[in-house]
Design goal:
CATH architecture: Alpha/alpha barrel
Largest sheet: none
Low-confidence stretches: none
Distance between the termini: 27 Å
Number of strands: 0
Oligomer: single chain
Structural class: mainly alpha
Radius of gyration: 19 Å
CATH class: Mainly Alpha
Shape: globular
Order of helices and strands: HHHHHHHHHHHHH
């Protein structure tokens, strides 16, 4: 099948009326160039249908997400991360009510500071996700952003094992980058934040997004598997979608990762779900590992489109 027709067919699959509204509205905006009013109308469905509605319905009256056998902070954190990734409108009344309940009811453990959700706790990977969700939904935390800036390591990234480890982690670094980007959008940028993000970009780019700097070997085979929801886990598709979202221009050091994305496309034009980090979600994730994934296909297509257009 010619590439153009394969792309059209794949986008049509993402826009199918049975598709998840959170996927549909982003595909309309990022791939189909739909009119803004049509995009807004589809986005408005997210808190009321599909995964966005399920996430909101699972929130406890105390503002916290719970799952049997799992400490409350974890289902709360991953539910907020996924709600942000749906692109639910923070101004939607149902969303605003949920976030206000979360801020009023949730507290991190006392030995981790006992703070509200948006102010985070102690580990950069957790705090990056908390900063991203808090900032996106109207609670940007200046103190948490400053803490993360102060915790940046000499090589440009972050690591939850610091100071025991002086070397950065791909996992922690992508979480913090996403958090700082959302914080900038909510609160405005500063030279310190720009410099910190650019140093972290170099940390990833020097490693071609998935290789060891010392040997050039693949740092972790898991980085080549595309997972959703991501939780704290790094992979090259998540990294490239961050660069797309941040408006970073294509860099020659991205080419190998872009080639990996292209190589994993199936003959029907779709991408498979390689992994899902859903063990702490309050309900099973609908997509199955090894099957075509609308979420992964959305991310892959918009990364390729942005890369080829110069981001």
């Amino acid at each position: 099948m010619p590439r153009y027709h394969r792309d059209v067919n794949t986008i049509d699959w993402l826009l199918d009326t049975h598709a998840e509204p959170a996927v549909r509205w982003q595909a309309m905006r990022d791939l189909a160039d739909a009119p803004p009013d049509a995009v807004a109308a589809e986005r408005a469905r997210v808190p009321h249908e599909g995964i966005g509605a399920r996430l909101l319905a699972c929130q406890g009256a105390d503002g916290v997400w719970h799952k049997d056998g799992v400490a409350d902070w974890l289902p709360t954190l991953v539910s907020m991360q996924l709600l942000r990734l749906t692109g639910a409108d923070p101004e939607d009344e149902r969303v605003k009510s949920a976030i206000d309940r979360l801020q009023a009811g949730f507290r991190w453990a006392e030995d981790l500071g006992g703070k509200p959700f948006s102010d985070g706790e102690t580990e950069p990977c957790i705090n990056g996700n908390a900063l991203a969700a808090g900032a996106y939904f109207g609670y940007p935390s200046d103190s948490l952003a400053q803490r993360l800036l102060q915790e940046q390591l000499q090589d440009g990234g972050w690591n939850c094992e610091a100071p025991k480890s002086s070397h950065s982690s791909f996992h922690s670094t992508i979480c913090v980058l996403e958090g700082l980007l959302e914080y900038e959008r909510a609160s405005g940028s500063s030279p310190h934040i720009i410099a910190a993000r650019e140093r972290a970009h170099e940390y990833l780019l020097k490693r071609s997004l998935f290789r060891r700097l010392s040997t050039g070997e693949v740092a972790d085979e898991g980085f080549l598997n595309f997972g959703f929801p991501p939780r704290y886990c790094y992979d090259v598709l998540r990294a490239l979608d961050y660069f797309r979202s941040a408006g970073v221009r294509p860099d020659p050091r991205m080419r190998e990762a872009i080639g990996l994305i292209e190589s994993k496309r199936q003959p029907d034009g779709r991408w498979l779900l390689d992994e899902t980090h859903n063990e702490a979600l309050p309900f099973p994730f609908a997509e199955q590992v090894g099957q075509p994934s609308r979420w992964i296909t959305l991310l892959a297509l918009r990364v390729l489109r942005s890369y080829k257009s110069g981001m």
